[in-house]
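Can't attach files on this board, so I'm pasting raw text. These are the components:
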Amino acid sequence: MVYLMDDTLLYFNNAATSWPKPRQVVEQVMASLQSPYHEHGRATTLSLKDYPKITREALCDFYHAENPNHIQFTANATDSLNLLIHGYVKQVNKKIHAITTELEHNSVLRPLRTLEREGAITLSVVPFNQRGYVSLEDIKEAIQPDTSLAVINHGSNVLGTLQDIKTMGEYFAANNIFSIIDTAQTSGHVAIDVSKLSSDAIVFTGHKALFGFPGIGGFYLRDPEQVSSFKQGGTGVFSEYPYHPKEMPLKYECGTLNYPGIISLYAGVNFLNDIGLAAIHETTEAMSSFLLEKLSGEDNLLMYSLQPGLPVIPFNINGMNSDDVAFILMKQNNIMTRAGLHCAPLVHKKIDDGRGCVRLSLSYFNTMEECEQVVEAIQTIARSVQRDEYVTLRSVQ
Amino acid sequence: MKIVEEIHSEDCFDGNFIKEYILDEVVTKAWVDFLKDFGRVTFLDGLAQPFYSFDKKYFFTIKGLLDDTKIKVIYRRNTMDMTAEFLQVLLDAFSKTDADRSTAKKLERDLLDKIEKGENL
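---
Top answer:
Structure tokens for the assembled complex are below.
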């Protein structure tokens, strides 16, 4: 089902970038390189597949959106969030109040903080509770008369908790607040039906659970009139017109697209449709439940999220630096995880005083046998530390 | 001990610079014990291959497993031109005489003086 260069590697860093990719993703991209791409408006190869078009259609179906031309390609979720956040504030053209949450990635926090520093917005950051959820009541408390923008995390990349974006979206829509949902972690793990959501935009990236390559992402935007474009350039059409077209899907896309990335995304979405999100969820849920059950029984482990909706498991070993734990897992057990702050500093400030933790994150391609090895490896480290074998021999500083 | 190959090099853009090296022989507990005289050593013994970490403020952090020839060194970027030499001395002096260890201590002091004077900060 997959290509593996290193079949001894236990890869548990899928919340950063999924690996391995499905065989059909790799094969379809490789096959596409055998002939020139059909570049809309830029080539005469009419008999070739128009990958951007069919990928927009595939994504439109995947998200149950109305108009495939409102699916836009970007480099990743960060690129999408920057475009939407800055583009919305530019379009509004007056100082507004924005809200976001403590669960956000820096891809949300930094654009908002930058706009705040520039005086374009005021910002409120809504806290999450002890279980990793943001309540609608806390959002309501943060709302001000000039609140006009909300950027909300669907699934936390550290805690794996899922927010109730349907209820929040309805509230934002009822209060005329433009809302952007960051589904970087959830797209491909959780069914997202934008026809049942009231949010104005959803952001996704290709390289995580959608099984595409790094460097491709995008967003769905309900009403392009609400977001200014700040990039202009070649589109292959309307070339005689001196300004950048406002028509979709041209409005936010300039220059030649990332064809290999788009094709990987197309193949990734088709793979997900073939397997089915329910089957994928069932598989990853079984493995993450196993890991949680086994690891939460260890005395010396600090578990930060006991009922995540995503296969994301953050932990620390009492008394140990998370970088050291990740280093040992990698070097001794060939288990790849991620340690540190995961670009979500406010989450870590709350759960571990900003020191960072180790994150296990799974995909459909992990196995229960791998999870058993991970449990054994972590237990060995944790029990060694418990026996006071993690010692500072001497400090001369 | 000597470095025979640099297998990875990475600028973290946060003030740190990581390099991974292969040594000509495996790291032993004796070398880790030797490092205690030069900085903070952390050691985890209960693993199939014990883990060690050596941290020296302003200089670098070394991480590795015993009985392994690979070491990971996290340099402080702004002092690494000077401290890379000190790493070689730490590797070299270990297997030699007390005089060589004195040389290492002297270099350590000289480098610290330079660093504290802000020459490379």
